[in-house]
């Protein structure tokens, strides 16, 4: 595995980008430019934190998140790929795929003219990944740290047959008090309600929270927003390459059973995920690619 020393020699940018190794062996990239700060774990190319300069954090990371080889991190932006939810036929395969728990390599770093920092990661194929996904393809996770946070998940089909994938950016947003939060922009969309045996329901009005929510919204627009009166802000989510949006909170009872959410952590996080899930899986022709992207911005209420 590439070490922090190697990464600093190849990609380090004085005062902007550096790499360090945590006591448990996790290698983490730290970005600090004029616009924002961020940390990204090399395992999973997993963005762990993002905080615009002079603002409160946009991304939530559990204070009890466990950083362990081969385990997903509670919080940040886990990458779900190449399927979303349980594998359709293999019960022993991990939910949401393997991308969030395996090593990625850093291919390129760009200091953009506007002061943003862009990092391009590529998933490293291995015997483990090939045993679960024996299809020739490449997947890149491109993260741009600036006034806004931008994620691009790009899958290229390197084979001679069409490729079917499901995926999501499983983004945990920091909120002040989930009981007062609403999600706007999904009005009129149908959703599959996992809490209610995947019943198909039409969303009436804004989404609000008073218990567990686990929904896949279908045929969703390219923009929605989280309104957070406790933090006096709204988080605007602009998506492309996606027609489905997942909204998830475990709420109190299930959150307490998870073990790494933290005391009442459910009140301070909300997942609104840009996805290709359920009826929105993507078929990629041989030699073609699909780009799933999301841009997150903080605006005042």
Descriptive terms for the model:
Beta-galactosidase, Chain A, domain 5; mainly beta; 301 residues; eight-stranded antiparallel beta sheet; 3 helices
Polypeptide structure, described:
The chain is mainly beta and 301 residues long. The protein has one domain (4-300): Beta-galactosidase, Chain A, domain 5 (Distorted Sandwich), CATH 2.70.98. It is built from 3 helices and 23 strands. It has helices at residues 4-11, 127-132, 251-258; strands at 17-21, 27-32, 36-41, 46-52, 79-80, 104-111, 117-123, 137-145, 149-157, 163-165, 167-169, 172-174, 182-184, 190-193, 199-202, 207-208, 213-218, 223-228, 233-240, 244-249, 269-276, 282-284, 289-300. Strands 6-7-8-9-23-19-18-13-16 form a 9-stranded antiparallel β-sheet, with no helix packed on it. Strands 5, 11, 12, 14, 15, 17, 20 and 21 form an 8-stranded antiparallel β-sheet that branches. The chain is globular and about 50 Å long. The relative contact order is 0.16.
Overall number of domains:
1
Numbering strands along the chain, what is their spatial order in the largest sheet?
6-7-8-9-23-19-18-13-16
At the fold tier of CATH, the topology name is Beta-galactosidase, Chain A, domain 5
Number of helical stretches of at least 4 residues: 3
Radius of gyration: 18 Å
| Main sheet characteristics | 9 strands, antiparallel
User: How many strands?
Assistant: 23
Beta content comes to: 35-45%
Which ranges are low-confidence, i.e. pLDDT below 50, for 5 or more consecutive residues?
none
Structural class label:
mainly beta
